[in-house]
UniProtKB/TrEMBL annotation:
Name of this chain's protein: EamA domain-containing protein
Tree of life domain: Eukaryota
Keyword Membrane among UniProt keywords: yes
Species whose genome carries this gene: Amphora coffeiformis
Gene Ontology cellular component annotations, sorted alphabetically: membrane
Region (Disordered): 1-31
Ranges that cross the membrane: 36-56, 77-97, 162-186, 193-210, 216-239, 251-271, 293-312, 337-364, 398-419
Keyword list, A-Z: Membrane, Transmembrane, Transmembrane helix
Biased composition, class Low complexity, residue ranges: 1-15
Amino acid sequence: MMSPQGAATTNNGTTPKGNNLRSPESSHPRRGEKGLYEWLIFGAAIWTGTACSILSKVLYETTDEEGHKFDKPIAQTLAMFLAMILGVPIHWVVIYWKLPFPGYDRFRIEPSKEERVNSTPVDFDRTPRRGCHKEVTNDEEMEGLLSPRSEHDDSRIPIWTYFYLFVPAAFDCVATVLCAIGLLYLDVSIYQLLRGSGIIFVAILRHYYLGEHSFLFQWTGVGWNVLSVLLVGMAALLASSHSNKSNLEDAVIGVTFMLAGTMVQSMMFVFEEKVMSVDEDKVPPLLLFGMEGVWGTLITIFFLYPIGYFAYGNDRGSFEDPWSTWEMLKSTPSIQLLMFLYCLSIFIYNLFAVLVTFSLSSVWHSILDNFRPMTVWVTDLVLYYSLATNTFGEPWTAYSWIQLGGLFILVYGTMIYNAPDAGSIKLRGEWYSFGLDFSDEYHDIQAQRRFSTMGSYPSLQRFLRSRSRHECDPRIFMSMREIPSPKIHYGSLKEQHSI
């Protein structure tokens, strides 16, 4: 079976050495590009994620007829996973009807007879140096230009994949519970800003786990994110200590649970990027979060709920009693409506969030969590000052200025990390750069992107790297890209060299 990286097979069935050595960004044609498609997905994820956070907090503060609050973090976790299960039947519908959906091209495009013609690949590293004219195989043409499903690429998903996705479900389950517990002790805006620390853990994990090289300006952006998290945590602690000792202890507990949950969630982000874009048997996005919902539901029912029931707490002597949860749902229409809206927003958010990871990267998934506090905070303030009861939302306090400063630093660090793309902040020695100049790194990234555009084929990219610019002028390859069929035209070039 041909690997998704497009490594062509030789006549004897072996794979040329090095053909599958590709970075995660190059394994998907759209990854790293930020056009209208990516920004629409990103914006939809921000607003649906904002709805999730607000509805979650409103659910916690909603009371039943007896005045009991719906403080049910495990119930919300179960509702989240139940909503995510919808991804599995939608995945089957997309495959059966061959519907266009991101990540499903190999299930939709059938190879033609011409695409099934076997051709012997040429390893550019071992080809004699006769200028820059090399034969490009049909396999590499299909990967670099069309990316259809090869005859060797089995569109069926291995059965073990369904069990393998237990890993991100476990990460998601643990992270959701930890963050939900932290939300019990914190305001929702503090909760969201602390989740901004995810970019710290994601950057480190991508560097050491996925082998992604990080530039110095990116680590600088991560450092600013660290500072923003410290400021936000300090704002929560100061606001609580100004009130009473009990609130101070609650803030410490909330911040601790939030940071722990964010770290586990970052592990899930990186794992999702790996299985969707790096591994040979890539997992489609809908199946990914759908199976996370299946496994997460089982984990919650058979593991988390028994622990919550037998652990001591204020819910009829338990940390969370599932029977009291069921009674509150049956007897309180407002909780039923909020739970339905919460499940709907959770499904839509997880769909767009997985597409963000698939189309861009796990770092952008964590950046998504960094941008959501702006909309969450604005919504919180509007709710508090627009509702007559002042029951929901968050008021402006003296320590909110520290929180606001942390928010600006968080956005500043994220825009530094996103350079040199549009909308980012490039540190080139200006006053806001604090003496830092990373112009050379920005130039290197842009040069690599131009180079990647010229060399659409794996062995051609390695050939370009091994030759100096005097030996192979990139302008030659720019002209070659206009040739419609490398298989035909490069064959004639080879015959000319052999004469």
